[in-house]
Amino acid sequence: MNVLIVDDEPIIRIGLKSLVNWEENGFRLVGEASDGTEALEHIRREPVDIVITDIRMPKMDGLALMREVKSVKDDIGLLVLSCLDDFAYVKEAMKLGAHDYILKPTMEPDELLAILHTVRTKLDEERQTKRVLAEWREQIQQSSAFRIADWLRQNMQTGTGQERLEAELFPPGCGAFSIWIEGEPEALPPVDEWDIPHSRAAVKWSDRVWIVLCGYERGLSEKDRYDRMFGCAQSLFARMKETMAPEDDWFVCLGPVIPKLQDFGHALTFHKRQLHGRFYGTPERFVVGEPETAEDGPLPTGERNDFLRAVSNGNREAAFYWIDLLTESVKLHKPNVGKLRTFLSEMLGLAFEFARQHSAAPPAEEEVLASSLDRLRAIPHIDPLCLFVKETARRLWSKPLEDGMSKEPSNPFIKKAVRFMREQYSRNIGTVDIADHVKLSRSYLSDLFSKEMGESLIETLTRIRIEEAKRKLRNGEMKVYEIAEAVGFSDPKSFAKTFKRLVGCTPKEFESRDEDSSGSR
């Protein structure tokens, strides 16, 4: 068993380490700590079976450590070190779950080993009890409710087992109703502890979802039937609320009446409408009734295409602009939630890959961002989902994308060409003019330029012109058609079209947006 020593006095730690032969007696010292905070970090980092801890320590004392350690690992052995005047603290430690204590002044090797062996025996017994309980729960799963769940799954997949399901779920004179439970699998309490009145089956629908079917007698009045339905759902809700932590993601939905087995599909549709309404509406923990409307709107494919175009053009400003419009569109049109998650995951995956290839994402962020795309399928509401998408986009491009304008050329001919374009962008120049200036053939210069800069001469010239246009638009001293001419465009319409392609919005929209942001500062 792994042992951790915690004491603020180095001499005590050294003494304990040398007091007994740990390995020969079946123990392994895995570390030491000078206070409770350091000990907790160690326990979180690697397996520890027994903690030998002092009571009085700076930062976090032994009692505080004992309180915290149970939330990290509930099957850990605790042995308390104490002085003669620590009796009150020792009593408190025993209440907190300490297995035993040992006095520092009279500490002997045999006594320490005897206590350690006792603690190990107790731990082994406790762990064996847990294993037995786990096996018992597995046996419980062979009970009627779980057997029905298996049959129901088979019926939904293959259409078989109709008669036995009708007999179990809908005995003569009885109907059923459904309750949908969703939450993180590791956070939900075991199903056999739910204790739902009138429960007939608990179906594990997915990793995060359970559907519970409860029964009622057909002779009940509509009011009595509803009272039973509401009472069962409320009982389950109360059980979840009692068990789950406030920050856990979970909720309960009361479904419709299911008169016969063939109506189970209608109940699923009902729950999906509830989930759609909850996702785009108020994220209640307890959902009752069906939302008035839950039509699936269109996915924002246009905004996605413009966003990805901005990304591929290395235009961070336009990418942020289109991601904002995309999230606004999602909130407005309320597309199917499952399709939306897939849509956003694919979009961010493409954008991430481009950012990775073009060094836009800092290396430390790459692994985190790649794995965080999985979170899209678990975020329970539209607001945090949109916030996640925006924050992911901004983290992806926390530094500018590499493009033809941000690269510093090394070839002297390329340097001369770029300098010429930056100085003469306002004139009606083309590739022939640039080639003449650097004294190379147009075809040779074009090939040389694209190999070093990753884009053509015209693409770089256009970027330079658009960047200058953005600067002039921010100044607000010229009209759009005047700016078009000033940056080398002979046709204002061609300028506006090129501007939107590269920036993600029209010159007028850019000007208005910049004015709005200036006014808010």
TrEMBL record:
Keywords: Cytoplasm, DNA-binding, Phosphoprotein, Transcription, Transcription regulation, Two-component regulatory system. Residues 2-119 form the Response regulatory domain. GO terms for molecular function: DNA-binding transcription factor activity; sequence-specific DNA binding. Transmembrane segments: none annotated. GO terms for cellular component: cytoplasm. It comes from Paenibacillus hemerocallicola. The modification 4-aspartylphosphate is found at D54. GO terms for biological process: phosphorelay signal transduction system. Residues 415-513 form the HTH araC/xylS-type domain. SMART domains: HTH_ARAC, REC. This is Response regulator.
